[in-house]
Amino acid sequence: MQRVRRRLAAIMCADVAQYSKLMERDEDGTLDRLKAYRSVMSALTERHNGRIVNTWGDAVIIEFVSVMEAVQCAVDIQNELSNRNASLPDMTRMEFRIGINLGDIMVEGDDIYGDGVNVAARLQELAPRGGIMLSQSVYDQVKTKIALGFDPLGPQQVKNVSEPVETYSVRLGGRNEPEANQDVSDKSRSADGRPSGAGHPQWDKDTQAVANSFEQARRWLRAQPRRVRSCVFMIGFFFLLNLVTSGLSSLWFVWPSLPFAAMLVWHVIVGRREKNPHGHTQHGD
Residues of CATH 3.30.70.1230 domain(s) within the chain? Predict the structure, then answer.
């Protein structure tokens, strides 16, 4: 009987999303595609110095000495399989879900066991179709060393694991930037491919500044008496009417707005005096 040994390893678990439905639609075609896709996974695993531990049904367990190699192998697998799926109808596409965990495992012969494997299997169940899910231990090792984006999904309670597992989804093709900055349309890019508007840091700052100004103005207006709000409303009404009828080529809204602007100034001044009746300089009798 072989003695059980322990070691730290990066474990990848993968399976086919909706495998039963694929088999029901086309059993022979699904099996042929599974064999072809596993051949791709085997070649990429060898390239990244991994070891396929077990395969059963549509599932695969792979062990890596390096966490970086494990994540890069997973990315390469998903990219390669995505390219192969691109030419297939949606109903026949075979998409894998991948989970990766770094943890202590028990080794007996060629088999591995323990929480390190179990967590990877549960992460795989949480992964989206064609996606990769990482544990906190994996994320901590690769977050600054690999050109990928990561979306924190928070702690997840998984089967047969007492403590919640912190999870991170890999943003395939992205970098470590907020997702909003990645989603820049072709229309917002200049001729050299760089963002010309949305997603540009300076644009984001300017947009935020404008939004803050509008919010401050809205709060100020809500805090004013009705007479002040009425004057602002009438000035705004004439401005919009000017904009709709004449654009900005002729600013005639100024003239009908003058009486309301004068009342607005008067109400603001009087309001300040009412709030601070002793704020002015007192003269002698």
Answer: 5-183
Residue 236's CB: how many other CB atoms inside 10 A?
13
- 72 pLDDT band, cuts 50/70/90, is very high
Give the total residue count for the chain: 285
Range 5-183 has CATH code 3.30.70.1230: yes
- Residue showing tokens 């991170």: 168
Token pair of 247, please?
Answer: 């654009």
pTM of the model: 0.60
Mean pLDDT of 132-142: 95
Measured CA to CA, the distance from residue 137 to residue 167 in angstroms comes to 9
Alpha carbons 107 and 122: distance in angstroms, whole number: 20
In whole angstroms, give the CA distance from residue 264 to residue 275: 16
Residues 6+ apart with CB under 8 A from 159: 122
